[in-house]
Amino acid sequence: MNRYGHFDALARALHWLMAAMILAMLFIGAGMVVSLAWRPTLLDLHRPLGIAILLLVVVRLVNRLRSPPPPLPADLPAIQKLAAHASHWLLYGLMFAMPLIGWGMLSAGGYPIVLFGGVHLPPIAPHSADLYTLLRPAHTVLAYVLFATVLGHLAAALFHAWVRRDGVFASMARSGKR
What is the pLDDT of residue 115? Predict the structure, then answer.
């Protein structure tokens, strides 16, 4: 949190960058399912973008511990505070788990994990058909959970911006400097 009661600049930059990346990943993932013609191209985008999200969420968690977020409004009902905190930690968990599960799934399937330009990641799981059949649907189910959580987060942000007008949205949207 900066001295104006807003998220610091790094937190805001990471939030909006990762929001765009996650939305892109959700559309890329949906595109991979519905288009066989575009699937190889979309996979080439999906893998490095997922690893980038994994690296950025680590930076984001470190920054969050170093610079705590501003407090929620004092008049916010306890259930909404609980939902806000729970959804934020769920988002962090999903941003961390989704790339790792995808990486583990490819490893278990024996697929090469190519990022770009011939850069390969090492496998993080043993080659195992049983493990692959466990991780493949887990990746899909968690993608749906991530999508639902992002929609809930967006709805809550708009509720704060347009209904409550309590500064919660503004604390992430701008620095607070006048």
Answer: 86
